[in-house]
Design a protein that fits this description.
Layout (H helix, E strand, L loop, with lengths): L2 H25 L3 H19 L11 H17 L1 H4 L6 H5 L5 H17 L1 H4 L1 H35 L8 E3 H18 L2 E8 L5 H11 L6 E3 L4 E8 L2 H14 L5 E6 L6 H10 L4 E4 L6
Parallel strand pairs: 1-3, 5-6
Antiparallel strand pairs: 2-4, 2-5, 3-4
Helix pairs in contact: 1-2, 2-3, 3-6, 6-8
């Protein structure tokens, strides 16, 4: 199944869950439960809306903390009505999150289970704990099992569906391939590095992808730095392309162009770029600091 169909199905499920929570909020008799259910439905709707643009919030901690905090609040605010939600904890453990967030989620699960003991009684409390514990262990095991897959995906996959924007790990491999092809075919190639502010990064990334050719990839090296490989017939066309890119991109950015034949390693190029004082610098036949 192609990823776009998986995204569409996932979004549909999230919207359905959000609608169900809105219905439960409408039927809820306590104001605290109503507010928590509305917040949870808003979280699901925003998540569904940003699903294809998850590069904007790839793993921000507040975003990961919200579902666990909302679930704990719901169980504490109205345990008589929502005690069944205790079984949602194992599913939350499968979400991608830092280790300390996982620990906090486990702590909240244990706390809510313990606070429900007076309402459930000794027998039901012990039975629910014996069932909940292995389910949570399965959730943790699933989370750990997916870690290598997530790490590999972050290194190789496109950061934005539909745009030729890739991670910085892909650039190192593409540099070797393009340098060999340029030497073989006599094509002029340059690496363009661009640094801007965090809030301008994604608008400029979209402009950069729009201004480059379909066969040229763009890359995000960090939260402020973009890169692209520019392919031209000769030096004259390369100069014209530099002028076009600088004219089409937004201001407040530091830019460096470096010929692939004089580039060296990507790490060296980035270090020279960090030391650069001028807004625009071009490396052609020789390398300047």
């Amino acid at each position: 199944m192609q990823s776009k169909y998986k995204v569409g199905l996932m979004r549909l499920n999230l919207w359905a869950a959000a609608s169900l929570l809105i219905l439960l909020a409408y039927l809820s008799e306590r104001l605290s439960s109503t507010l928590l259910l509305v917040l949870a439905s808003v979280w699901l709707m925003v998540t569904a809306s940003l699903l294809e643009m998850s590069h904007r919030r790839p793993a921000t901690v507040p975003w990961q903390l919200l579902p666990g905090l909302l679930l704990a609040g719901l169980l504490l605010a109205d345990p008589e009505r929502h005690a069944l939600w205790l079984w949602v904890w194992p599913a939350l453990l499968m979400l991608p999150q830092p280790g300390w967030v996982l620990a906090l989620t486990c702590l909240l699960a244990a706390l809510t289970w313990w606070l429900l003991a007076d309402m459930l009684g000794i027998e039901q409390t012990l039975f629910s704990g014996l069932v909940l514990l292995p389910l949570m262990l399965l959730g943790l095991a699933r989370n750990r099992h997916l870690l290598p897959t997530r790490a590999t995906a972050r290194q190789r996959m496109r950061l934005v569906p539909g745009l030729p924007l890739w991670s910085g790990h892909q650039l190192s491999a593409d540099l070797r391939r393009e340098r060999a092809r340029c030497r073989r075919e006599g094509v002029h190639a340059e690496l363009m590095l661009l640094r801007t502010s965090r809030h301008q990064l994604w608008p400029i990334a979209q402009d950069l992808c729009r201004l480059t050719h379909e066969f040229e990839n763009c890359y995000r090296l960090d939260h402020r730095t973009l890169a692209t490989l520019l392919l031209s017939r000769d030096d004259k066309q390369a100069s014209e392309r530099r002028h076009t890119l600088l004219k089409g991109l937004r201001p407040s950015a530091k830019v460096r162009f470096a010929s692939l034949n004089e580039l060296g390693t990507l790490e060296e190029a980035v270090q020279r770029f960090e030391r650069q004082r001028e807004e625009i610098q071009v490396e052609t036949e020789s390398v300047h600091g």
